[in-house]
Amino acid sequence: MESLHRVRGFEKIVEPIRLTPQSKFVFQCYPGVPCFKLCCSDLYLPLTPFDIIRIRNFLNLDTESFLLLYTEPFKLPKSELPIVCLKMREDLEKTCPFLGEGGCTIYEVRPLACRYYPLGFGLFRNRDEGKNEEFYYLVKEGFCQGLDSGKEITVEEYRISQGIPDSEEPILEWAEIIMKKESLGPIEVPEKSLELFFMVSTNPERFRAFIFESKFLDIFEVPQDLLEEIRNDDLALLQFGFRWLKTVLFGENLVKKKKDAPSVKKAKPF
After folding, report:
1. Contact yes or no for 83/198 (Cβ under 8 A)
2. pTM attached to this predicted model
3. Rounded distance, CA 35 to CA 249, Å?
4. Residue 211 CB: number of other CB atoms within 10 A?
5. Which of 105, 116, 234, 235 is the most buried (most CB within 10 A)?
6. What is the mean pLDDT of the chain?
């Protein structure tokens, strides 16, 4: 099995073991730990659509400004779908742009990947039972001295303590899209499909403009009350965007087309 993380400092790689929500582990992280902040540099840290919204709002920036200042394009390894990851500083250690003397300066809205550390998370489709199943694993880096110290805690207790469920719930359908693409294997994906996925995943303002300023509403049926929601609520816009992506990328009929919709060049399903 491949190692899941490139370690620094003490060269030590521990292979992942599948954990359940009830599995127990020991971990603590606080400014008194000798390795404090070492895990906050030289990262490929993917940002979920909800991460982008929360950090952007916390910094009081529009999405375009946030993306330009703090992110760079990134392709997910298995699905090869385009998203953005956090852009590290151009210093010797390639530190996180939000790392300060006392730790994380955006701790309140830190990305989902940061909340999970030192846990990793996976999602797969159980075809026999017809449902998605989650699994977890422990990432052990050689420099981390917070592992195996502190009190014992279950995976689920740790998730709750880090605010993970609230950060995860808004992007579950997005994770399903990625998982479904992974299950299709290394197929060639039309460029238009990648553009649509990237737009919904990274830039709610651009997606909102696409809905209201293009021929979108001439093609798709969107109830008036939902239109008002997505006009004003970024979370409602995200949820609609994920359903629409499933419709255009996988042929799922979640956002219905109008019977008299004009003929337009459309993205080919994966």
Report:
1. yes
2. 0.88
3. 44
4. 18
5. 234
6. 87
Q: Find all residues with CB under 8 Å of 155, minimum gap 6, and list them.
A: 19, 20, 21, 22, 23, 24, 25, 119, 136
Helices 204-213 and 224-232: angle between axes, nearest 10 degrees: 140
- Rounded to 10°, the helix 172-183/234-250 angle is 20
Beta bridge partners of residue 217, listed in sequence order: none
DSSP per residue, 222-239: --HHHHHHHHH-HHHHHH
Residue 269, pLDDT above cutoff 60: no
Interval 54-65: pLDDT, tens: 999 999 999 999
Instruction: Write the DSSP string, 17-40.
Output: --B-TT-EEEE---TTSTTTTTTS
Count of other CB atoms within 10 angstroms of residue 255: 19
> What does the domain layout of the chain look like in residue ranges?
24-171, 188-250
Confidence of residue 157 (pLDDT cuts 50, 70, 90): very high
